[in-house]
Design brief:
The structure holds two protein chains of two kinds. By secondary structure, chain A is mainly α. Helices cover about 75% and strands about 0% of the residues of chain A. Chain A has eleven helices and no strands. The longest helix of chain A has about 35 residues. Chain A is globular and about 65 Å long. The two termini of chain A are about 25 Å apart. Chain B is mainly alpha-helical. Chain B has one domain. A two-stranded parallel ribbon of chain B has the order 1-2. The longest helix of chain B has 30 residues. The chains are: A mainly alpha, B mainly alpha. Chains A and B meet through helix 9 of A and helix 2 of B.
């Protein structure tokens, strides 16, 4: 984890996601005096903005994207594998890549929430804050973070398969937008594979939208497993 | 005949591994995504009028705009990062052929890749909008509605009555493709020249500067800088239309009988002159070019 937090790519991803939240913030809607709980509504709007949707696949691949390519090309991997077992390396790498996609959004989102709270809440009229809205905002942030984690795993998979930076950083973006294109241009009813729907969660996902969390869990496990298997196959060559 | 064979062999060598090169694959994939973003406007128009389009109309409406041309051609910088193509095989090739023939092969390679890229863009745009298009070579109802409304002008879509009366969608798209290819070739040749003269970073810088030059030489930007009034805009359009390579590549910035702007043929001639100039400069630079790196990618 220390390795991830010190990574420049991780900081860059955090900055990009924070900028995404800031650019998506509906400043033009801010009119004083603010109604009670407005800061949550503004925060929710910034989470659901188009800018954020565009930046997710860019920020998600920054921390872990090329780490395998870098380690493999520089010869570090050979040296490292003499000190740890292959399974330990695979386990650590898979979790690190997932965390590298998940955490920047989660941390930048939490920071944005604090900004909204400290700057807007004091300007609101006195009244009760809707906990339902707060829960909605937290759930949206978690969904964005999960998408980040899944895309980061895709980046790790492409890095291990192609051992190339262009593929590691570029293909997840292409895959993400292929799903957007399929939904928007060819299959308008195919909302399950639409990243925009993963963030907004407006369609039917079962009772209490529990289906989307199951979906994230299953997809996350599937991509982590695929990544591990590909790494195992690659490490046999080392 | 021997010279042609040698050049063809060098061109074939440049294409070796082209389709497996991750940078090339990534460039073409990014271009597909870019076409999706850019064709959003054409789809919006079709949705607004709730009518179909001719298969090439999305391409005409998308790449009749300077910004779209600029964004599309920027990906060529990524595609041509490795020019001139040097590999461990290059010294052996140079032992058996003249350096000028080798350079000519580089130009043919650029030409073929650019044509391939632009045809891919035409195809990608048509495929992305195929849900709302038909194949016949006649202008659609959407195009007619656009031509008789202000929406086309507001969205910078070159769908005017004059264009529709004078040409068919196929011929119009061919003209736009020709202009796009000319612009892309001038950008790529410029990159090759700077690559040979000053190195890779200078080539990328030259490519970006060329694009920025075209972008800034926009009639609206010029009018703001020179503080011109609305009635003087025709003059700004005329100056920008003749000076900017990007405007030479923009279909809507040509002479349709309203302004003294270049015709499509004149623009092609301007590009041809520019390409010949870059070609001769590159041949001159080749004399002093130091082939010190044969490691390739």
């Amino acid at each position: 984890m220390k390795e991830l937090l010190r990574d420049k790519g991780f900081l860059a991803a955090m900055v990009v996601s924070f900028l995404g939240f800031a650019m998506g913030f509906p400043f033009y809607q801010v009119e004083f005096p603010l109604g009670s709980g407005s800061f949550i509504q503004f925060y929710q709007a910034s989470l659901e903005s188009q800018v954020m949707l565009f930046l997710i696949p860019i920020a998600a691949v920054l921390p872990p994207g090329g780490s395998y390519v870098r380690e493999s090309a520089s010869g570090f991997l050979k040296l490292y594998l003499s000190r740890v077992s292959r399974m330990d390396y695979i386990r650590a790498k898979t979790c690190l890549v997932y965390a590298g996609g998940f955490l920047p959004f989660f941390l930048a989102g939490t920071l944005s929430f604090l900004f909204c709270f400290f700057f807007l809440y004091p300007l609101e009229l006195k009244g009760a804050v809707s906990w339902e809205e707060a829960r909605g905002a937290v759930e949206t942030l978690l969904r964005i973070s999960f998408i980040g984690g899944i895309i980061a795993e895709f980046s790790g998979i492409f890095a291990a398969v192609f051992r190339n930076y262009y593929m590691a950083y570029g293909l997840p973006f292409v895959v993400y937008y292929m799903m957007v294109i399929l939904k928007e241009r060819y299959f308008p009813k195919m909302y399950v594979m639409y990243p925009g729907e993963w963030v907004l969660c407006k369609e039917s996902w079962g009772t209490g939208n529990a289906g989307i969390w199951v979906f994230f869990l299953v997809v996350s496990l599937a991509v982590m497993l695929s990544h591990s298997l590909i790494l195992y196959w690659r490490l046999q060559e080392v | 005949m021997g010279a042609v064979k040698q050049v063809a062999a060098a061109v074939r060598w440049n294409f070796l591994g082209f389709y497996k090169n991750p940078r090339v694959v990534a460039s073409f994939m990014f271009s597909f995504i870019l076409c999706f973003f850019l064709s959003e406007r054409a789809m919006m128009v079709a949705d607004y009028y709730d009518s179909s389009m001719q298969a090439l109309e999305p391409f005409i409406w998308t790449f009749g705009d300077a910004t779209a041309i600029l964004l599309c051609s920027l990906l060529l910088i990524l595609l041509f990062l490795d020019l001139p193509k040097l590999s461990p095989f290059t010294p052996y090739m140079l032992l058996r052929m003249k350096k000028s023939r080798w350079l000519l092969a580089q130009f043919f390679y650029i030409f073929l890749v650019t044509v391939l890229y632009m045809l891919y863009v035409v195809l990608a745009t048509s495929i992305l909008c195929m849900q709302k298009t038909y194949a016949g070579n006649i202008w659609s109802k959407t195009a007619a509605l656009l031509a008789y409304s202000n929406m086309g002008k507001d969205l910078s879509i070159p769908s005017t009555v004059k264009v529709m009366e004078s040409t068919s969608p196929l011929s119009c798209s061919m003209q736009i493709t020709a202009l796009l290819i000319c612009y892309a070739l001038s950008l790529s040749f410029l990159m090759l020249f700077f690559q040979m003269k000053l190195g890779k970073k200078a080539a990328v810088g030259a490519g970006l500067f060329y694009s920025l030059f075209g972008f800034l030489l926009n009639p609206d930007v010029l009018a703001k800088i020179l503080r011109k009034e609305e009635y003087e805009m025709f003059l700004m359009r005329r100056v920008a239309g003749w000076l900017s390579p990007l405007n030479h590549a923009t279909y809507g910035m040509h002479d349709f009988g309203y302004d003294v702007l270049p015709s499509i043929g004149q623009s092609c001639m301007v590009f041809l002159a520019l390409l010949l100039l870059l070609l001769s400069l590159s041949f001159y630079t080749l004399k002093k070019y130091n082939f010190n790196s044969f490691t390739g990618d």
